[in-house]
Amino acid sequence: MYAFDGGHDPRQASHEALRGIREQLRRHPMVTTVEGFPHDTLHTELRADIEPSSIGVNAPRGTLTVRWFVSDPTVPVRFTFHYSDENGFDCGWHHHEQDHVAELGHYQQRTAEGYTYEEFHFGSKEPSRVVWEVLEELQTVLIER
Amino acid sequence: MEHSARGVEAWTDHTTAFDRVRSIVEGLDQPRTAQYIADAAAVSETTAHNHLTRLAEMNVIRTVAGEDATRYEPDPLYARFRTLRRLIADHNHEELLELKADLQAQIEDAKQQHGVESPTALREQATAADTAAETMDCIEAASDWALTRYHLSIVDDAIDNYTEYAAIDRGTPA
């Protein structure tokens, strides 16, 4: 079995983070449905249907895919909130290792030449709070397009 | 650019202070003080303390004595039983057996794909990866694998105790 030396189990923390993220996504007015994959309850990934017109933003419907990875308290949490819409727009707010910006937090957006990257500082790394920060950023990006 | 307050106005518009405190403390990956939770939940420390006391009395969270202040973390048994209860409510015994087989197949696939016997061994590969992308791939796969093992342990609980738990859930204990 996977060993964890006392305290809070990172596997349970990952599961509970995704469960909490799902609850928050359901409360946001841009989100119509949220499903867990590969199983609705025992999920490792969430997919939320986004309807920008529900908050008056003129943009096509899209999907926000969320992953969350807890290792242990000494290691930074990694996560990805990645968005794509029916017209091929593709972007994401991620917090993990990559070779493009100095810190873990970054925003990436697909262009004809591939992804572009810029640093993104998350105001909080607590799952519920990240949901609302990312959805506000997404709203801004969709309005400015 | 400072993003610390981004999204907070919408969050407070659509949730109560209790909802925000509960969601923050249930998502913690390590024990935190009432001050930390208050800041994260966009409430006063007094409000956070009052809600945390209620949640601890309800066994949703538990307290951890710290050198300077009490810390709070999710109650692992409560969290586990919440997932277990959902499985029992949504699945019959046969479906749980199928779910167990699916999870076991995912674990076998991970072993075959990565050529190691455990998520821990796969995490060790991440430290030796040549690129950041390879590191992240190993971390993702190891986390999914560990999480699948956790899910399998809950499904095993559900299967082993199905008759008793399902009767309790239906209000007809044996």
What amount of the residues of chain A lies in strands?
Answer: 35-45%
Distance between the termini of chain B: 61 Å
- Oligomeric assembly: heterodimer
Question: Major sheet of chain B: size, sense and barrel closure?
Answer: 3 strands, antiparallel
Query: Which strand order do you get reading across the main beta sheet of chain B?
Result: 1-3-2
Sheet having the most strands of chain A: 7 strands, antiparallel
Radius of gyration of chain B: 20 Å
Sum up the overall morphology of chain A in one term: globular
Question: Which structural class best describes the helix and strand composition of chain B?
Answer: mainly alpha
- Detail the poorly predicted runs of chain A: 1-6
Number of strands of chain B: 3
How would you summarize the topology of this molecule?
The complex is a heterodimer of chains A (145) and B (174).
Chain A: H1 10-27, E1 31-38, E2 43-50, E3 62-69, E4 78-85, E5 90-95, E6 105-111, E7 114-119, H2 127-144
Antiparallel strand pairs in A: 1-2, 2-3, 3-4, 4-5, 5-6, 6-7
Helix pairs in contact in A: 1-2
Chain B: H1 8-14, H2 17-26, E1 32-33, H3 34-41, H4 45-57, E2 61-64, E3 71-74, H5 76-90, H6 93-114, H7 119-127, H8 132-160, H9 162-170
Helix pairs in contact in B: 2-3, 2-4, 3-4, 5-8, 6-8, 7-8
